[in-house]
Amino acid sequence: MAKERRYxxxxxxxxxxxxxxxxxxxxGVAKSLKKAKGKKKLPFELLVCPPFTLLSLVADELKGxxxxxxxxxxxxxxxxxxxxxxxxxMLENIGCKYVxxxxxxxxxxxxxxxxDVKAKAEAAIAAGLTAIVCIGETLAQRDKGQTLAVNRxxxxxxxxxxxxxxxxxxxxxxxxxxxxxxTATPEQAQEVHALIRAELxxxxxxxxxxxxxxxxGGSMNPKNAKELLAQPDVDGGLIGGASLKAExxxxxxxxxx
Length: 257
Ligand code: PGA
Prior knowledge:
By secondary structure, the protein is of the alpha/beta class. It contains 11 helices and 8 strands. Helices cover 42% and strands 16% of the residues.
């Protein structure tokens, strides 16, 4: 049964790819979409998030393809003395529509806290981008029975002010499932997605809260995608490893159909 919310299938390429890899992968993704598009209206939107160095090249490659472009992080300021950082306005300027903020690898490697993530999401939205706000518990937190409390706290702390379904996407990514091959079961994913949905409805109201897309991320692959995507509050995926091969990424997207 088709869902009211259109699925978002997002590839997070992380720190991977030389120019030739980026070009080939973008081409492959665009080609799969082109082949399928003629047949019927697809129930999903495709997005790729390459590293900063490949954004321009991938933007050129994807022109007119219908595959959206996103980045993996941004700064909160529009410009200025921030060596090594990238402003959301710069991302918008080269054709990005989305930016991931608060990925657990940024939280762990760069000490990003909920307040930083919220500020980044707000800056991204002000620049005309849609923010993909990531949250998720660690294995230790899950084992202590803190899963729902941690996700509730992170969502409340990271949700941008005035979020709408157009400007904001939430990604639930249990840290223990990222890059480990250990996926949350569809029931585990739905349990947290239902909590996120309830919190969104509380914060944004019934209509808007029900429209916001909630993605699952963590070892999603062609084998497990369909079952996860069938859950009532799983509105897409944030895919790492399996997004680095065009065929696998496409096979995950086919799980929406
Ligand atoms: P994975 O990464 O699919 O390789 O587990 C997902 C993510 O971190 O976004």
